[in-house]
Amino acid sequence: MSLCSGNRLYLNEVIPVCDSFLVLSAKYPQIKSLMGPDPRLKWIVCSMVAVQFLAFYLVKDLSWTWLFFWTYVFGSGINHSMTLAIHEISHNTAFGNSRPLWNRWFAIFANLPIGLPYSASFKRYHLDHHRYLGGDGIDVDIPTDFEGWFFCTRLRKLFWIIFQPLFYAVRPLCINPKPISQLELLNGAVQLTFNVLLYLCWGAKPVVYMMMGSMLGMGLHPISGHFIAEHYMFLKGHETYSYYGPLNLLTFNVGYHNEHHDFPSVPGRRLPMLRTNCSLILEAPSGERHENNAVNLSIRRSAADESVPRSVTDVELLITEGVKAIAAEYYRDLPSYNSWIRVLYDFIMDDQLSPYSRIKRKLTGDIKQE
């Protein structure tokens, strides 16, 4: 049933969800070769944390004017990117499913430059989002009724986007509050200790840079277009959209959102293999080259060369033209975006769009939450 009020549209109809994972996994069993940890992820995250630590030191002597400038131009982007690194880690793509605690602790480490302890809570709520997309009272990615009712004009929608991180922080407490876990307590204690030490060592400016960077980066910022692009219903009946623009390079390919929801165990770096034209080329230490069309990721190995990698996790992926990708025909015709900035503009300016423009489901049966 659709409930309309003025220019606002609120969908709470139950829409059957096609289990793309089962369908595509059966048709393309080689997709399983893309799953598993990304060995590069932990080094990329460590480098990003180190860059922000250096920035904390450099901004301590800046004037407030330059501090605000660099906070938006640089700090906001890298802090938003750090939140998406935590999103990656929440799917155990740093150390694999066999070491879940390593992933949780590493996420707490990645959380340090963001300033607010959220990595442990994000993990719990994000898995609910995947299991029960749009679930009423479960999926806290769905705006509250108040948000849909109030933020319906262009000016109010602009305000809503600017303060998006605040709504994301408060919404779980309103929709689906959960008991605090030990990991959340650890996350909070570690973050508070870090924030205090940062202030004691280098003063207030690095702390302001850190906190404001997170607020600005997740507010009115080009990267924040992904918040709207992922599930807001620009086309009626289409619930999830992918983005294939250049900002994927800074966001761990979070734009490949249809692909991510279908295969959350595939790290962001490998999601493009589900739709782009690509081939896999392996070179053994002996110099022999092994080429494999991405349609079949079982690697041809010579009998004498046991050192050729067995898994896609051990090789470089060379993107080339003219070779059919895994499941490409499934994704190529789905609606998608090429600009997150345009998504933000259209969301604000289109009077038919509001926080109500989401599909919401009434869940029944046994519901298992994190």
Automatic annotation (TrEMBL):
Amino-acid biosynthesis is among the record's keywords: no
Primary location class: membrane
Substrates-to-products reaction catalysed: 11-cis-retinol = 13-cis-retinol; all-trans-retinol = 9-cis-retinol; 11-cis-retinol = 9-cis-retinol; all-trans-retinol = 13-cis-retinol
GO cellular component terms, A-Z: endoplasmic reticulum membrane
InterPro entries: DES1/DES2 (IPR011388), FA_desaturase_dom (IPR005804)
Membrane-spanning parts: 41-59, 66-85, 105-122
Keywords assigned by UniProt, alphabetized: Endoplasmic reticulum, Isomerase, Lipid biosynthesis, Lipid metabolism, Membrane, Oxidoreductase, Transmembrane, Transmembrane helix
One GO molecular-function entry: isomerase activity
Domain Fatty acid desaturase, chain residue ranges per copy: 65-276
Cell compartment(s), UniProt: Endomembrane system; Endoplasmic reticulum membrane
BP GO terms, sorted: ceramide biosynthetic process
Membrane topology summary: Multi-pass membrane protein
Record keyword Lipid metabolism present: yes
Origin: domain of life: Eukaryota
One Pfam family cited in the UniProt record for this chain: FA_desaturase
Subunit structure: Interacts with RLBP1; the interaction increases synthesis of chromophore-precursors by DEGS1.
Described purpose of this protein according to its UniProt entry: Has sphingolipid-delta-4-desaturase activity. Converts D-erythro-sphinganine to D-erythro-sphingosine (E-sphing-4-enine). Catalyzes the equilibrium isomerization of retinols.
Homology family: Belongs to the fatty acid desaturase type 1 family. DEGS subfamily.
Name recorded for this polypeptide: Sphingolipid delta(4)-desaturase DES1
Species of the source: Danionella cerebrum
